[in-house]
Amino acid sequence: MSEREQRIAVLGAGYVGLVTGACFAELGHAVVVRDILPDRIAALRRGEVPIYEPGLEALLGRNAERLTFTTDVGEAIEGADVVYVAVGTPPTYSGDADLSAVWTVIDELPDVERHIVVAMKSTVPVGTGEKVRHRLDARGLAHVGYASNPEFTAEGTAVKDFMEPDRIVIGAFEEADGDLIARLHDGIEAPIVRSDVASAEMIKLAANAALMTRISFINEIANVCEATGADVVKVAEGIGHDRRIGKSFLQAGVGFGGSCFPKDSLALKQLAANSGYHFQVLNAVIEVNELQKRRVIGKLTQLLDTLRDRRIALLGLAFKPGTDDTRESPAFVLAGRLLAEGAQVIAWDPVASSDGLSGVVQVDSVAEALRDADAVVLVTAWPELADVDWAALAPTMRTAVVVDGRNMLDPETMRAAGYRYDAIGRAATNGLD
Ligand code: UDX
Q: In this structure, are residues 95 and 270 in contact, taking their beta carbons and an 8 Å threshold?
């Protein structure tokens, strides 16, 4: 290894840990990834990747000689310069982040005598670094450094997001520890934001909250567009050109889901509340999203008079395209509501599964999903849905009704193809009145 290459241990072989480990190996570092799940580690040793993430398998394969997988924490830490913590922090019933996995790995750290730096990748409440610091000090590990180095990668583009990030955020108690974390990223072109630990922790939570706020904002604009006769797609285009606003995260739809936004919004809300502050904007963002996921039900009821015994096709189960992840997916909320109203639910997704959604019938093609359906809802913006021959499928439905939950299709073309077409916030173009 050259001087700039380091030894890195990554604790947690989940989505974040694997991407982090693979990308650091790609940058030339020697990486040991450790997980408590023996099956997962065995699979990784065989070259099998337990998650669906474009580019990850190739990256792990290409860097196999710099990557080791183990269940043994001692083996992972041995010789490591930096120990990344990349374990899950799911919400508890109260909405707080459950830090038990973080504390477990911190407590499992062997009593190293040399200087190493613990770097936090897991999304944690502000103040966690300070608590870890105290815990390490209490164990006589004051010489072990600590840094917060949050990740901003999105599923489906995680490898690219890691290698070409908008910024790298590093918050450390000691400047030299932050310098070491910065050096690990040599080879990546990006601004590096150095801060105190608490601010780095807050940057992660605030970035997510800002993105969610944009989505709930545009969804509310969409709802007002419906009430007033405007088209949110045009509105988003019109405001997105304003450089102060920007174009991204202004797609109105059936709400946000996924493994981060819903969890992190609750964690920030709870963090604020625990500190005595009522975070009004964030509360509204969460509530708007809950209502948005259910809005399609109102549209379908209006279009079909009743949902009882209606056959509804849901296109897309993943919380967004490019992933098989269905965590907090709006599709699941929709399916649950439809079943509760007495509808039959047929679902299609190119990669995600309806496991866990009892009562939903999953089919292999869009054509099968639409056959004899009373309505179809586009829930996930899978690009292949734009290429479907909608005109050919309209006659196969019992009633050709579409609710385009991602505003993917052209309203004029769909109406010309024989559909009653509704979308999100497109009163100017839906022709329903
Ligand atoms: C997100 C953040 O983007 C990432 O920085 C963070 O590290 C983890 O959380 P991810 O959950 O993978 O990443 O998905 P993202 O692409 O951000 O989409 C989240 C949800 O918002 C999806 O359900 C998506 O459909 C929805 N969304 C996104 C909208 O409804 N409208 C938009 O304009 C953008």
A: yes
